[in-house]
Amino acid sequence: MMNRLFEPILFDLKPFHWIYRRISDHNFRGFYHWHQGCEFLFVHRGQGRVIVNQQTYDLKPGMLFFFQPFQLHKVHVEVSHQTPYERSILHFDPISQGKNLHSFPGLNTLFYRLHNGIYEKQAFDLSDRSLYVAEMFKAFDQSIATNNWEEDCRLFLMQILSCIRVNTQELETSLHQNKLRSLRYSETIMQWIEEHYTETFDLEKLSTELHLSKPYVSRTFKRETGSNLTEYITIRRIKQACHLLQMNNDSVELIGEQVGIGDVSYFIHLFKKTIGTTPHQFRLSHQVM
User: Fold this and answer.
1) Coiled-coil intervals in this record (predicted)?
2) Where in the sequence is the domain holding 59, given as residue range(s)?
3) Residue 22: beta bridge partners?
């Protein structure tokens, strides 16, 4: 069901990972995941939705999305041979690449705010500059095969940030605008789950507080996000469990209880099914203390 929740990206050889115009026209199933680097996702073709930070954004040609390190997100796209999903993706190490922006205070401030979540907005409509962006991406893809890839990567990141900065006023007011925009039901549901995922899940309580029927809650969440409630709650719990396993020495049983899964055997089973390893093995290979 969920087999790639954490996607490790190696930055040992190069401080970035580049995917140019990848096309999916069948068997594309979006999944919730996170990774250790920053990500820019640009959509060349496709229609769908992106779920990140308990918000849902429309996915369409010309959209650029930014994901922070270790930020849970999902791309949900309905694909076919007639309506393929084509995208370019840049994963990069924010530490090494961020240092390159220190001589450019405007871009450095913009990146700092994006990287640290000061701007709530994570989707940018660049459709009016899509031809320029497409040429920029093509030039970068051709240049990284040369010996100047380090300089070209720095320039490329600055070009992307410059595209975002074109609408500086829009960015400055995005927090206010997001709060005024009517929330989709799925966003309200995700906000409720964020407050209650450490408890035993109660669909009756959720539907009552939202003044909606239980079937409508389940059906609407599935339609708007492409996944069911059980999958989302499980992933949210396991992501928090990963964080706790890295940051403290609490027992596996206690961590399971802290994320709303009181049966330790079931917690271990669910963790291994989702992450691909047991909680103990994950702790040994990822603990930062």
Assistant:
1) none
2) 16-179
3) 87
Q: Are 73 and 173 contained in the same domain? A: yes
- The verdict on residue 212 lying in a domain is yes
Condensed to tens digits (0 to 9), the pLDDT of residues 205-225 reads 999 999 999 999 999 999 998
C-alpha to C-alpha distance for 39 and 177, rounded to whole angstroms: 24
**pTM of structure:** 0.82
**148 and 276 part of one domain:** no
Tens of pLDDT, residue by residue over 219-256, are 999 999 888 999 999 999 999 999 899 899 999 999 99
pLDDT digits 0-9 by tens, 68-86: 998 999 999 989 999 999 9
